[in-house]
């Protein structure tokens, strides 16, 4: 076609003479027929070769949008002219205009998106050259729009996602262009794409998954790179999971080069992040596949981090971290684990070596690298390991603790950057889009479970205290408490926020028991105590937060024993409100429950406590013990307890149930509280006697209570 045209550029005039002649004919056209003929000539000149931006703009100035609009929407073509020829001409002109980014974002182009989308799935002769040309021009227009700042949003709103899916599934002319454009839209606006076109996108995923499972050539490696983009933010269809797992099993079970293996590892990591282990079948084949995944991941991590001077492929290693996390979860699962015990032992061994490599890497990280996403990912996997295992690599972990405290403090103090880091890690690890659940945005939350274990041990605890971890934890707890308290928007907070508060409480409980001097001398714990006292009264009244209330009540009671001389605990309104709430938590745990066929009730758990008693009972017993210890230290506490009627109601409860239904540890806990209250206050003793306290004490063999109530 180019051979039929005059030279593209006349050096003397700087313009294309042929195009100038056609544009002149267009300007002088007197009717639609003449304008149509001139447009055909202009289109021919445009397609004859490349044109610069100025020439393209001159064409637009001469043509405008009016006539292309008519060409796209006309339903009456001249005699002997197929109607799609007119549309093809209109699309060709739009494609020419869209080469200019400014014109691609023009409202007159954007409002053509629905029409252009219909051309992708229109039926017609697949061998028709004009129709093929129109399809190519349509993709050129849509791709140009997608490249503008707000283009993806307009395309999605205009129904392009569904049209592209149908064009790809139809495997007609240009279906590969449809897939390429879909990939771009998903990368730019994943959530909106799935919201507008979920059924069609799932159909594409089913097709790609089936192709992946059947592929025997190099296309399977290309599909490994595409498939992560098409995994939905919600549930992945089970048939897709089966195909993906089968395809990955064949790939990873073969001897591969790194460029073949790495996309497969990243796809597996994306599935692990989105679905946990649900995509791996149960049974022997599934356990072998999971073991293979974790072993490959650990080898990759060691090769990348142990060899100095080599460039680390951070996206691949971070994906391997996700697979290691899956391995950690399955190795620590007691019920319905995919792994057999010998496999667990072997995987713990290889993961220990990989974690050693992670520690080695983190020891080399300087201040200038602390805000890099890969460092965050490395701290994340270390945190996941320490949450389950602190006995191995103890020396290396202790050496790294100062860095971890400084790192967590840096990210805590720059919370917005930390949240951005979590998104970068997700992108780095899995795919070009944000996958699945949001990863926690602060390093401290990742490290809390491990630090909870380490504060029990003398050596690590001393390092954490020396590096200022308790003060940091107090600040963090107070901040998180504020964010999760009533009156604040908690919708943006991760589900793990309340679990993190509970873990902080466990760490503080460890410090109360193992480092009481620290609680007494560090001012941050006074602030913490004030927050606990102010917060518990409202917390015990809130549905669904009983476990957190148990943590707060027990921690506050234990700290109150150590801080009993503090002015804040000398019968102030805050302290009275706290202990009233603590009594409410301790007193409502058990009730008398009638049993069929028996005249006597039995002691049973309250409905609210029953479902979580396994997690609650240790805190409850510790809270009872701590309350008992507070009574002689705070003279106002026994009269307050009497006014709450707790001792009377407790004796009434014990008197109404069969003694055989009350376990010995419960008897001991109840007796401890009753004895201290009776010793501390004469009115308490009198009230207990009036409630048949001596008789109840005799029935339950509470010798200490019997003796105390026998005194004047």
Automatic annotation (TrEMBL):
InterPro entries: ARM-type_fold (IPR016024), Neurochondrin (IPR008709). PANTHER family: NEUROCHONDRIN. This is Neurochondrin. Belongs to the neurochondrin family. One of its GO terms (biological process) is regulation of neuronal synaptic plasticity. Signal peptide: none annotated. One of its GO terms (cellular component) is dendrite.
């Amino acid at each position: 076609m180019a051979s039929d045209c005059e030279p593209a550029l006349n050096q003397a005039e700087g313009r294309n003479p042929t195009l100038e002649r056609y544009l002149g004919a267009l300007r002088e056209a007197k009717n639609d027929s003449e304008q149509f003929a001139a447009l055909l000539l202009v289109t021919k000149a445009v397609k004859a070769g490349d044109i610069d931006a100025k020439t393209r703009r001159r064409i637009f100035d001469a043509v405008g949008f009016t006539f292309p609009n008519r060409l796209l929407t006309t339903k009456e073509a001249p005699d002997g002219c197929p109607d799609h020829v007119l549309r093809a001409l209109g699309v060709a002109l739009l494609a020419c205009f869209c080469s200019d980014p400014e014109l691609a974002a023009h409202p007159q182009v954007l409002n053509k998106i629905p029409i252009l989308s219909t051309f992708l799935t229109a039926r017609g002769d697949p061998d028709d050259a004009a129709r093929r040309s129109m399809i190519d021009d349509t993709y050129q227009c849509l791709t140009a729009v997608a490249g503008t700042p707000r283009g993806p949003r307009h395309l999605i709103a205009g129904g392009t996602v569904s049209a592209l899916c149908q064009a790809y599934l139809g495997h007609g002319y240009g279906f590969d262009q449809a897939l390429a454009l879909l990939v771009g839209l998903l990368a730019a606006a994943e959530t909106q794409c799935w919201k507008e076109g979920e059924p069609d996108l799932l159909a594409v995923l089913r097709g790609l998954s089936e192709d992946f499972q059947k592929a025997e050539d190099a296309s399977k490696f290309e599909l490994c790179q595409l498939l992560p983009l098409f995994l939905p933010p919600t549930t992945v269809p089970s048939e897709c999971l089966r195909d993906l797992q089968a395809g990955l099993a064949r790939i990873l079970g073969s001897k591969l080069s790194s460029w073949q293996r790495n996309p497969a590892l990243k796809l597996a990591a994306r599935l692990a992040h989105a679905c946990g282990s649900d995509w791996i079948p149960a049974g022997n084949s599934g356990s072998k596949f999971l073991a293979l995944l974790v072993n490959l991941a650990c080898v990759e991590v060691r090769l990348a981090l142990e060899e100095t001077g080599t460039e680390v492929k951070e996206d691949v290693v971070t994906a391997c971290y996700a697979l290691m996390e899956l391995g950690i979860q399955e190795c620590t699962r007691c019920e319905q684990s995919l792994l057999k015990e010998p496999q667990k032992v072997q995987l713990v061994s290889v993961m220990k070596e990989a974690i050693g490599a992670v520690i080695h890497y983190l020891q080399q990280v300087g201040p200038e690298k602390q805000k890099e996403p890969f460092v965050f990912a490395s701290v994340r996997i270390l945190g996941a390991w320490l949450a389950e295992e602190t006995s191995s690599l103890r020396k290396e972990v202790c050496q790294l603790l100062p860095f971890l405290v400084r790192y967590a403090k840096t990210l805590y103090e720059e919370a917005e950057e930390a949240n951005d880091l979590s998104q970068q890690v997700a992108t780095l690890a899995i795919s070009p889009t944000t996958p699945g659940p949001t990863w926690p945005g602060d390093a401290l939350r990742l490290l809390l479970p491990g630090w909870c274990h380490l504060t029990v041990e003398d050596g690590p605890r001393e390092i954490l205290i020396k590096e200022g971890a308790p003060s940091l934890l107090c600040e963090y707890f107070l901040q998180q408490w504020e964010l999760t308290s009533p009156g604040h928007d908690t919708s943006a907070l991760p589900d793990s926020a309340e679990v993190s508060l509970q873990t902080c409480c466990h760490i503080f409980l460890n410090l109360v028991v193992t480092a009481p001097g620290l609680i007494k001398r560090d001012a941050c714990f006074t602030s913490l105590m004030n927050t606990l006292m102010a917060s518990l009264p409202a917390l015990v009244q809130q549905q669904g937060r009983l476990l957190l209330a148990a943590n707060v009540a027990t921690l506050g009671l234990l700290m109150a024993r150590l801080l009993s001389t503090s002015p804040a605990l000398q019968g102030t309104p805050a302290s009275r409100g706290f202990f009233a709430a603590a009594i409410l938590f301790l007193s409502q745990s058990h009730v008398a429950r009638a049993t069929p066929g028996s005249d006597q009730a039995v002691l049973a758990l309250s409905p609210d406590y029953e479902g979580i008693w396994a997690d609650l009972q240790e805190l409850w017993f510790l809270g009872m013990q701590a309350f008992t210890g507070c009574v002689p230290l705070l003279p106002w506490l026994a009269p307050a307890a009497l006014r709450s009627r707790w001792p009377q109601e407790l004796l009434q409860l014990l008197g109404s149930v069969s003694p055989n239904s009350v376990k010995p540890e419960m008897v001991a806990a109840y007796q401890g509280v009753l004895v201290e209250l009776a010793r501390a206050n004469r009115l308490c003793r009198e009230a207990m006697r009036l409630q048949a306290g001596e008789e109840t004490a005799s029935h339950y063999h509470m010798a200490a209570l019997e003796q105390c109530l026998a005194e004047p």
